[in-house]
Design a protein that fits this description.
The complex is a heterodimer of chains A (466) and B (165). Chain A is mainly α and 466 residues long. Helix content of chain A is 71%, strand content 0%. In chain A, helix 12 packs antiparallel against helix 14. Chain A starts with a helix and ends with a helix. Chain B has a five-stranded parallel beta sheet, sandwiched between helices. In chain B, helix 3 runs parallel beside helix 5. The radius of gyration of chain B is 16 Å and the shape is globular. The chains are: A mainly alpha (466), B alpha/beta (165).
């Protein structure tokens, strides 16, 4: 009953927050801005307190926007001086935003890979060169986890890698700190690896989606050039950190991964499609075919051959696509109604340096996503960053892409708590470690991440973007 | 955890029951254990558990019981959708070949443990059966990682297409 009342309170709070802007006039905010504020409040409350699943909140956002903010809705059928209403198709169209299609392609590929054990077999092959000393085994595990989670979901990668490390942990002495180091290496590497490509994890989609509504398209390769060096450095730091904090006692790690690549015709076809798609994605700058367009190839190829059957299609994680679409949709209204700009201009930004703002956005994103879903954190922060950059109040040196990247990357750097990310929750559930271990290591990675993101935003990213 | 998964032990000899429950102790925090001395009592316990919204994950059943015997009880439970999903293990020294065949064919028996059992053997069977039950019933896998076969649960998560959010 206690859980129920907490849920009810969250719903009441959200609904109350939704109603208030309808009755309170806020100076400087357009009429449509009030409505957008209502929707923003209910979305933020629901996303943060989760009385309903986060994807359901996203669907609600789109519904409310269509009803109250679209040209076909009930409040703004005509253009006015302060608001040119979006067509409802702008809001529902976010579900077919190129980044959503790109994710769909990623889902389908990952799905086929798991179906034919490609993920496991790749892991087996890639881990071989790392020998059997604990140091290098952990490095190998982290690199492979990072690589896979760049293309599959961080959570699915973690689940798969758990099947690899659990037998090792079981054979390790109970008092060997390596057990903890191993159990943390996987979720951390998965969280970090997700940053590496646009399809690695949903916060990346939020960033790319928000930028695309501003007319800025980030190519697959461009994202990788921006993100991969950062991923490698943070992975390296995390490796050393885990070795220092949880120094392995044993000198030898038993590693016998068995299995063989499936060789059926379907399996071979999946390998080819997988390789071809990834190859086309990472060579976008050479051939110029957009990654979302390429993403349609695996979807079509695998369903035409029946490898992706009706049940597989039904079981795709559609809720993640809704979640991201709702976020992009909310951003549209915050922009077009002037709400985001109103929030931004109520603060005297010119008093702050670009450096300060980079650190502030990164820090807030890291803190928020330690407690909230990474996607939600990015979704709530991105519209502010976009207005800050487009309204010009932030002054020179404040680039839209730059600050969006800062938010997107930082949202994936939160790993202090079991609730921070699903991979963390999986590691915690094994019982090989205590929360304080995760918090200590996750805190260090958060601080280091903040530092690296700041340095990248100041020195490396401008170099690539200009 | 509002919806609990129960272990039911059906055994008429007190010492044997005590020994079984003692060997199952480590599962108790995750899977509450209920006991019954007869088939009739077992049915009452099951009704009680189901009425409260919980499920029976595993039934460890002796064969020779006063009144209806263990195999007949398991066959009866197999015809009820609420208990056909439960894992069924016969723990006995006295079931003849015919009864055992009957249990396998008609009660979809999942395992046969012959008395006397060892603690390790019992633990392993219970862990395996409950792991399968949890996966088949789509329960929250994470909450059982510590007590059940974590590797198998992880593999199930991998196949379940878990996503980030």
């Amino acid at each position: 009953m206690k859980a129920l009342s907490r849920q009810t309170i969250a719903i009441l709070l959200g609904v109350l927050g939704f109603i208030i802007p309808f009755f309170v006039h806020i100076p400087g905010l357009s009429e449509a801005g009030h409505v957008a504020l209502s929707i923003f409040i209910i979305a933020a409350v629901f996303w943060m307190l989760e009385p309903v699943p986060i994807y359901a909140t996203s669907i609600l956002v789109i519904l409310l926007q269509v009803f109250f903010l679209s040209k076909q809705g009930i409040l703004f059928p005509e253009n006015s001086a302060t608001y040119i209403p979006n067509s409802y198709t702008d809001f529902i169209g976010t579900l077919a935003n190129p980044i959503i299609i790109l994710f769909l392609g990623g889902f389908v590929l990952a799905d086929a890979a798991v179906k034919f054990d490609l993920d496991k077999n790749l892991t087996r092959i890639l881990l071989k060169p790392f020998g059997s000393s604990p140091k290098f085994i952990i490095l190998g595990l982290m690199l492979v986890t990072g690589l896979l989670s760049a293309f599959m979901s961080n959570t699915a990668t973690t689940a798969m890698m758990m099947t690899v490390i659990l037998p090792i942990i079981a054979k390790t002495d109970l008092d060997d700190p390596m057990r903890i180091g191993l159990a943390l290496s996987i979720p951390f590497a998965a969280n970090i690896g997700g940053i590496a490509t646009p399809i690695g994890t949903p916060p990346n989609a939020v960033v790319i989606g928000a930028l695309s509504t501003q007319g800025i398209d980030i190519a697959f390769t461009e994202w990788m050039v921006l993100a991969v060096p950062l991923v490698l450095i943070i992975l390296g730091f995390s490796w050393i950190l885990l070795l220092l904090l949880f120094k392995p006692k044993t000198g030898l790690v038993p590693m016998d991964l068995k299995g063989s690549f499936q060789k059926s015709g379907s399996a071979l076809f999946v390998y080819v499609v997988f390789a071809a798609t990834v190859l086309l994605w990472i060579t976008e700058s050479l051939h110029g075919v957009g990654s979302s367009i390429v993403a349609l190839i695996p979807v079509a190829a695998l369903s035409l051959t029946g490898i992706l059957n009706k049940d597989d299609i039904r079981q795709l994680p559609w809720e993640v696509l809704w979640l991201v679409a709702g976020g992009i949709s909310l951003g549209i209204s915050m922009e077009s109604t002037g709400l985001a700009e109103w929030i931004i201009t109520s603060i005297e930004w010119s008093a702050f340096s670009a450096l300060f703002m980079i650190i502030a956005f990164s820090l807030v994103a890291i803190i928020m996503s330690n407690f909230l879903s990474n996607t939600v954190s990015a979704t709530l922060l991105i519209p502010l960053a976009v207005s800050l950059a487009t309204s010009g109040v932030a002054g020179e040196g404040f680039s839209l892409i730059l600050i969006s990247l800062v938010i997107g990357v930082s949202a994936s750097l939160a790993m202090m708590l079991p609730i921070s990310t699903p991979p963390n929750a999986i590691a915690m559930s094994t019982g090989s470690l205590k929360t304080k271990h995760m918090t200590r290591a996750g805190f260090a990675i958060g601080i280091f991440g903040l530092l690296i993101v700041t340095l990248y935003a100041l020195f490396y990213w401008p170099l690539i973007l200009n | 955890m509002d919806h609990k998964v129960y272990i039911l032990v059906v055994e008429d000899e007190l010492e044997v029951m005590d020994a079984l429950v003692k060997d199952l102790e480590k599962f108790e925090p995750f899977f509450p254990i209920e006991t019954a001395n007869t088939a009739k009592e077992a049915k009452e316990v099951i009704d009680y558990v189901l009425d409260h919204g919980h499920t029976i994950g595993l039934i460890l059943c002796d064969h020779v019981l006063p009144g209806k015997n263990g195999v007949d009880l398991l066959i009866e439970l197999q015809s009820d959708p609420h208990t056909s999903i439960s894992k069924k293990v016969l723990v006995t020294g006295q079931a003849g070949q015919d009864d055992t065949i009957l249990a396998i064919n008609k009660a979809d028996l999942d395992h046969y443990i012959s008395k006397p059992w060892t603690e390790e053997e019992l633990e392993m069977v219970v862990r395996d059966e409950l792991t399968d039950f949890i996966i088949e019933q789509g329960k929250d896998l994470l909450s059982y990682m510590q007590i059940l076969d974590a590797e198998k649960l992880s593999e199930a998560m991998r196949k379940k297409k878990m996503t980030d959010h």
